[in-house]
Amino acid sequence: MSCETQLNTFLLKSKKDLENIDEKPCVHVVIGNESCDLDSAVSSITYAYFLSHDVLPESAVIPVINVPKKQFEVKTEVKYFLNLNSITDDMLVFRDDIALLGLHAANQLKLVLVDHHVLQSELAALNAAVTHVIDHRPRVAAASGVATHVHIELVGSCATLVGQRLHEKKLLQQPQIARLVRGTILLDTSNFSPVTKKTTELDRQIVALCEKEADLDCSRQELFDELVAAKTDISSLSTYSLLIKDMKKVFGVPLSVLTMSVKDFLERPDAEASIKEFCTEHEARVLLILGVIVREGSQLRDLFIYPNTCRPLADKIEEYLKASTTPKLDLHMVENKFGGKIFKEINTYSTRKQVLPIVERAIQNYDTETGINS
């Protein structure tokens, strides 16, 4: 069997195993975070492939794309890059294809978290099933605490840490695997741009290994430009879809990241209606929207805090973001819109990974003060 088809064969086997899941004594599920960006998707697929080389033959290993199937269309760069590397939608298992809670109740589930280490709220009951964690963001207090294998390291991309493991088994020699890992790291680090300050030496080493092991010679810049074009291609997406395209929640508060400015987004004719629909759908007390534009090597960022049903919580989040010193965000309010506030972010080096823990602390403080946690 050629190296090019080994991963695809594994993915098709995972789909087949799903049809007979009740017969499997042990089901290893590898799942990325709920934003389902390229890093999460590729890390879940490639780490599951790595894991499949170690488990017992009667066990199943299933990588899960952490969105409902109907929402996958909005993950434009993920869909584009997987298809570019011969992975079609029908090879994938989506979050609504598999009954994780049922597997856990039947004592079949062993859960592997990649690109995150805190389970999203709707999966919190699965905490005891977590066996492995691989992540590249700062550890938080609410981390899933029972995993026996934990690798958390601050690098530019989770695919870098997965790439280390793949290299151990010489799996980066397979061109399809190497291309997936390399492209993901390049996108996550903005092609090692010093502007974003995300790149570590390990990111560079793993990309170089991918190129050496699989004899890859396509231009890094050309690939990065292709992926950015796919990610920012929002021409076919509705205003509502833009909010779910790159969204994560912390204690029920969604933070959506846009590849356009918040100010431009809010000028859309149906922006207010879409925000209200989104908040209702996600039962959001508050909604945060972060706009990011990369232009001529620099980043421009703005932030929208929409109070929805809980203005005091919105005010608490604003207070914490303004007071933050690590990182110092330098927020300046520029406009009121739809009852919310638009801020210009002067520190363009901060990332959502850095902002989310601040938001988390604000929510925890508010809920404690108001007795919601009691």
TrEMBL record:
Gene3D superfamilies: DHHA2 domain, inorganic pyrophosphatase (n-terminal core). This is DHHA2 domain-containing protein. Residues 224-363 form the DHHA2 domain. Its cofactor is Mn(2+). Belongs to the PPase class C family. Prune subfamily. GO terms for cellular component: cytoplasm. InterPro entries: DDH_dom (IPR001667), DHH_sf (IPR038763), DHHA2 (IPR004097), DHHA2_dom_sf (IPR038222). Pfam families: DHH, DHHA2. Keywords: Hydrolase, Manganese, Metal-binding. GO terms for molecular function: exopolyphosphatase activity; metal ion binding.
